[in-house]
Please model this.
Amino acid sequence: HVYNEYFFDEPAWNTHDGGYVPLEEPTTPQQKLHVPAVLQPDKETATDQYYTVTAQESETQLLPGPKTKTWGYNDSLLGKTIIFKRGKKVHITLKNELHELTTFHWHGLNVPGPYIDGGCHAPVYPGQSSEIEFTCNQPAATLWLHAHPCPSTAQQVWHGLAAPVVVQDEAEAKLPLPRNYGVDDFPLILQDRNFHADNQWDYRADYDPDGVQGKTPMINGTINSYIDVTTQRVRLRVLDGANRREFRLHFSDGLEFAQIASDGGILPEPVYFTKVMMTCAERDEFVVDFGKYQDGDEVALMSDDVPLVHFRIHAFEKETTQLPEHLVDIPDLPVTPGTETRHIVMSGMDEEVALDGKKFEMQRIDARQKVGDVVLWDITNSNEMVGGMIHPFHIHGTQFLVVSRNGHAPYPNEHGWKDTVSVNPNEHVQIKVRFEYTGVYMYHCHIIEHEDGGMMAQIESFDPKHPKTYKLMDMATL
Ligand code: C2O
Ligand code: CU
Ligand code: CU
Model:
């Protein structure tokens, strides 16, 4: 079966939310897609990995003419790709070379909260550093690192503080998937920006409480990018790294592609699409087979009618590898008897956004859940169908399973691990949530300006036998 829909009200899309800024095709020359370098460990042993991750301010040649002031992790913009190996203990020195406080949030990583997780309670002050350690014990996946200081997450991510994180494991290594990084396996960080005078970004000028958008697509920090295709099959690890934009992906000629992974890892089976939509913070891994093209052909990955990445086809060796029908097993997670369904409502737009009728408070713990329990969460988007927005709902420190959408089956690519799920206007989505570690974790809309605007709350995952207290930041201590 091949799915040919975008999944959400496609004809109404561009008009149903008044603030929507359509993408425009860049007029500057095509440039080779920047592939983030792999961050080299300071040291690696059979059991441990040691890294230093530095948030820094710099500038990047994005357009002809003046360079753009940008921020990044160990790089001038975005960041180097950090690779964790399942089972290893990871030690990271987090360095802040910015002129303001930041935090280092590991989006999608199952680690204790709130300090290692790196949400708003784990500040690293300018010129300072801090140390974290954890054991990476989760399936192979594409995750990401981004800044998360409240309430300036949106601004810092917009400046460039977002980097790919890859978890590797043995189950993934056995599958016949492309994994030659930078050759047939590429991270694609989809973002959008506006360029103002002297090629600069201007967050304030572009500010919109419903999420900052730009008309120019920027992929891995490249404007008008192309990839040289030198193998028949290519794997794309796509992250919607935009503050607010959904991407409605398809190829210029309708080429079919296979999705093999969602946020938290490999899917139970590949799902074939000609069109797929991604909302903020979601990751989808695709395998694209360019077997029908000839040397010299070109095909583009588009969002709506705007190309994001051009694929320039070169001569390649013919391959006959097929994706297996079954990829990995995903356990079912039965709901823990005696637990009650947790109801959550994301409401409002603009400055009115709220979660359960409230604005986020750093020192208020909104809910508690016993560590290890599997609890059904029912998340409602109370926006109206007309004029409303999709709110992508994200929980820190866990990978969950999607159960249903308005009582119906989830999308065909939602049968694997997720940490972010789109909730459409007038929809309620049920998910099964389990925390493997104790801690205080944030959950929120991942339109980053909505999150900064208060559409966020926090939950304590607790162990009744070992009660803990947490030092939670408040605005005053910032
Ligand atoms: Cu990408 Cu609070 O997260
Ligand atoms: Cu997160
Ligand atoms: Cu939202």
